[in-house]
Amino acid sequence: MKQHIKGFLIHFTLILICLFCLLPFLWLTSTALKGSEENIFQYPPVFFPKYPTIENFKEVLRLVPILKYVLNSFIVAIFTVILNLIFSSLAAYPLARIDFKGKNVVFFLILTTLTVPFQAIMLPLYIIILKLNLVDSMSYIQGYLGLILPFCVNAFGIFLLRQAFIVIPKEIEEQALIDGCNSFQIFYKILLPLIKPSLSLLAIFTFVGSWGEFLWPSIVLSNQNLFTLPVGINELQGAFSANYRLIASGAMISIVPILLFFLTLQKYFIKGNTEGSVKG
Predict the structure, then answer these.
(1) 146 with 36, same domain?
(2) Reduced to 3 states, what is the DSSP secondary structure of residue 242?
């Protein structure tokens, strides 16, 4: 009986937390679907509009080239994900599977970068990108590179994949050596497929972070053709006023690709979280 009561309380608490987390999303959806005749700031708040409309979405598509912004964000996010998976796995593999002098020192130095806020390195990073002529370039390729390169690898990805590599039994690697595989073949053909859940988890985190990044693109971009979605949605806000219905509609459009990307990789999400949790 006590076990059932405990299980009920746990699930009830989790449901309440889930509903609490969904409230901002519900308010955003409600605001996007409300017409101009409905007050979006009334108290108590009304989450279900009386007369739902999609006119706000049509107006967003008319005012700004939001589909172009979606394409820009997609290109930047996808290439950021690909580069993170490549570089993080290449850095994590020797830290987990190869013994060399100073390995632990290198690993802990990488981890210390997690404590450094992006704002602290933003100015020198901007100067580097400026010297490379990647700031607000009229060339699409250079403009994309200015958005992608600063985020092409991070300490979290290295840590996550290192933990995934560590839990793989040494016998698998030793058997591959006996069969004639070299280090790169072991890494690419044997170990990488075994950590697919962690790779998918890193891909999800990286995609969401890149898709929602606003600060860096707003600094390095002024060419509207290169605007990513967060910067483009900000254009809906005027200097002295803001139409929150349009902003909410733009935000709803920006959420859809994230949901689709997560749903595509969701089967690996929980497994990837537990795979990298073993102490190394």
Answers:
(1) no
(2) strand
